Amino acid sequence: MAVYIEIKRKWEGFSIELQVKSSAKRIGILGASGCGKSMTLKIIAGIETPGEGRIQLGPRILFDSESRINIKPQKRNVGYLFQNYALFPAMTVEENIAAGIKGNKAERKRRVREMTERFRLAGLEKRLPGELSGGQQQRTALARIMAYEPEMILLDEPYTAFDGFLRDRLEQELLTMLDDYQGTAILVSHNRDEIYRFSEDLLIMEDGKAAVFGKSKDIFENPRKIAAARLTGCKNISRVEILNPHSMRALDFGITLHTVREIPGDTSAVGFRAHEFVPIWGKRQKNCIRVQVESRAELPFEWKYYLKPETEEGRRGGESLCWFVQKDKWQELSERGLPDYLQFSEGKLLFLQE
Amino acid sequence: MAVLKNLDWSPLYISLKTGIAATIICFFAGIFTAEKVMKLPPAKKALADGILTMPLVLPPTAAGFFLLLLFSRRRPLGIFLFQNFNIKVVQTWLGCVIAASVIAFPLMYRNARAAFEQVDGNLIYAGRTLGMSEFQIFRKVVLPEAGPGIVSGTILTFARALGEYGATSMLAGNIPGKTGTISQKIAMVIQDGDYQTAGVWVAIVLFIAFMAVFFMNLAAGKRRKNIRKWRE
User: Fold this and answer.
1) Bridge partners of A342?
2) Which residues of chain A have pLDDT under 70?
3) Angle at alpha carbon of residue B155, lines to B150 and B156, rounded to 5°
4) Which of B126, B144, B229 sits opposite A82 (nearest CB)?
C-alpha cells in the first residue's frame, strides 16, 4: 500500500518539512537524535498534528490541511510500538492484548488466545507487564498491536532501552515476527545496521528535513549527500575543489584524487569508508596518501586506526583519517609493518553534495 | 465516668455524616475538575488553578463569608434555591456539607491533578492508537495509574472535612443535634471551661482521623507493591 507523507510544521527553534512517497512495505527512517524522526512518526499516528501537509495511506486520507481532514488517532488504524513499549502497567498481559480489540466477549477471547499463542505468551496471560522480561514485554506489545489489525505499524526505536546481546536478540525477534505482517511498517532508528537489515526504502533525516530518500541499498552504496554518508557510517569525509572532470583536490585530506569516472559538477565533498583503504608497501601509486598513526584502538574483530595524513607537498595537517583493519588482515600488517601509503581505491570514492 | 454517661453523641453522627458526604462530593468533583484543568492551555490553567486552590489558602472564615454572601436567603442564589426547590443552606446540615466540601475540595483536586500529570504520556498515546476512547483511556489507564495519589487525596479530604470549623460555624451555625459538629462542640465546651467533655471529643476525633489515615494507607500500600513491580 502506497504511503504519502507531507509534513510542514514549525516550533520554536525547530521545524519539520518533508515530502515522501513510497510504495515499499518496509520503510526506514534514519537520523541523529533530535532530527525529528520520532515526531514524524507521532504525526503519522495522529498523536501530534502537523501544521500543514497531507498524510495518505493507500486510498485513505488521514490528514489533509487543505480540506481540513484530521482523522483521530483512534480511527487511523495505525499501530505504534513505543520506545518503552507503553504497556498498561495495571493490566495483565491478556488485558493489554485485548485493549484494542473490537467485538463481543467471545470474539475478544478468541483473538487474545490466538495472539498469545502466536507471540509465545501462553502461560503468561495473568502476569503484569512489570513481571515480564524485556523480550516478553516486546512480544506483548506486538501482540497488542497485531490484535488490533492495523494497516500500518510504526516502530519508534524499539528495544533502545536494552543493550548488547538482549538488544540484538530483540531486534532479530522483532524482524522475524514482522515477516508475516502484510501491511506497511516504518522503523525509526539511529542505528544504521538495524535500518539496513529492515528497510526497502530509506529516508535520511537531518534537522527536520529529508536529506535523502530512495532505495535503502542504493543509499548505502551511494549516499549522495554528506549527511547521508555520515549517517550510513562513512568515517572519512573531506571538502573538495574540482580541478577538472577527472580530478579533484580533497582539501581536508591534503591529496589530489584522480578518477576515471567523471566527477559530477555539483560535488562538494568526497567520502571514503574506513574499511576500504588499500595498504601499499613500497612505491607510491595513484591516489595514495602517506600517513602517521595518531592513535590505535583494538576492537573485538578489527583494529581502528586514527591517522594523520601528510600532504603531497610534505606538510602535515588536515583532518585525521580513520582506517578499519579486519583482524584477519592483521597478520599481513604485523609481518610487513605499517604500510608506506594508503590508497583511496577509485571505485569506492563517494561523490557527495551538501 | 459521669461525662460519658451524659454525653450527647449527636456531634459524632453529624461530623461523620458531613465528612463522608463532603468526601464523596469532593472525590468526584475533584477528579472531574483535575482532568479538565490538566488539559487547559497554560495561562487558563494558572488562572483556574489559582481560583480552585483559594479555599485551601484562604482563612476558613473568609471562605465562610463568601458562602454566606452566596447562599443567604436575602441573595439571588439563596432566594432561587429556596423558592424553586425549597432548599435552605444557611443554618442547616446542608450548610455543613457545603462548607466542608468547599474547604476540603482543593486537597482532592490538587492530589488528583498531580497524580494524573505524572502518568506516562505514552500510555495515553498508546491507548489512542489502539482505538480506545478517551473515556476508556481515563477509566482503564489513567485512573489505575493515578490510584495512590487519588487515595491519599481522599484521605486528606476526609480528614479535613471532618474537622472543618471556621466556614461551617459561619454558614451552618452551631445548632445542637442539627449542625453541631465535633469541632464546634469542642470550641463551645472550652468556652464554658468544661475541659473534660472537650477532652473526650478530642480523643474521639483523634481516633477517627487516625483510623482513616491508617486504613487508607494500608490500602494504598497494597497498590504500591504493584507499582514497585511495574517499575522494576
Assistant:
1) A279, A289
2) 161, 311-318
3) 100
4) B126
Residue B231 has pLDDT above 50, yes or no: no
Cβ atoms of A278 and A345 within 8 Å: the answer is yes
Residues A278 and A305 both lie in one domain: yes
At residue B95, the pLDDT reads: 85
With a cut of 60, say whether residue B223 has pLDDT above it: no
Pair B153, B111: CB distance under 8 Å: yes
Q: Domain of residue A192: give its range.
A: 3-222
CB pairs under 8 A between A and B: 79
Among A84, A99, A128, beta carbon nearest to B122:
A84
Q: Which domains does chain B have, with CATH numbers?
A: 2-222 (1.10.3720.10)
Q: Are residues A182 and A51 both part of a single domain?
A: yes
B135 near A CB under 8 A? no
Split into its structural domains, chain A has a count of 2
One domain for residues A163 and A45: yes
Confidence of residue B215 (pLDDT cuts 50, 70, 90): confident
Residue A326 and residue A302 in contact, taking contact as beta carbons nearer than 8 Å: yes
From chain A, pick out residues whose CB is under 8 angstroms from the CB of B144.
89-91
Looking at the predicted structure, is the pLDDT value of residue B4 above 80?
no
Is the pLDDT at B226 greater than 60, yes or no?
no
d(CA B155, CA B86): 33
Residue B225 in this model has a pLDDT that exceeds 60: no
Q: Which of B30, B21, B161 is nearest to B106 (CA)?
A: B30
- Matching residue, cell 474547604: B103
A209/A265 same-domain check: no
Does one domain contain both A186 and A302? no
**Does B74 reach chain A within 8 Å, measured CB to CB?**
no
Q: For residues A106 and A189, state if they share a domain.
A: yes
- CA of A75 to nearest chain B CA: how many angstroms apart? 6
Span B18-75, pLDDT tens digits:
999 999 999 999 999 998 998 888 899 999 999 999 988 989 889 888 888 888 777 7
